[in-house]
Specification:
mainly alpha, single chain, rod-shaped, 3 helices
Length: 102
């Protein structure tokens, strides 16, 4: 993901450069040049962001979770709860035995 981080910026600056060149060649007023270049930067940044997402999906394949990890996690929490209950029962039994001996 580090490599694709700069794609929107590069695409945006390239589009802005092309817009600058076109507006300098053709006779535009300063305000029109500003609007054209600004809109080109925004549009090309959005295009670059969409392109980055597409490239990330193509390059970095995500693992599909089939739910087996969640089931294992649930079992482990159930086991820990069962062991805690057993410990509590043993403690209460030992206390009752201690009480009987006294």
């Amino acid at each position: 993901m580090e490599r694709t981080k700069y794609i929107p910026s590069i695409v945006s600056l390239t589009g802005g450069l092309m817009a600058c060149i076109v507006t300098m060649i053709n006779p535009y007023e300063t305000y029109e040049i500003f609007l054209i270049v600004l809109s080109a930067l925004i549009v090309f940044y959005i295009v670059g962001a969409i392109g980055r997402k597409i490239i990330n999906k193509a390059i970095y394949v995500t693992k599909i979770d089939d739910g087996s990890d969640a089931e294992e996690g649930e079992e482990s929490t159930e086991e820990s709860e069962d062991s805690e209950k057993k410990d509590e029962q043993e403690n209460s039994e030992s206390e009752s035995l201690d009480g009987e001996k006294v």
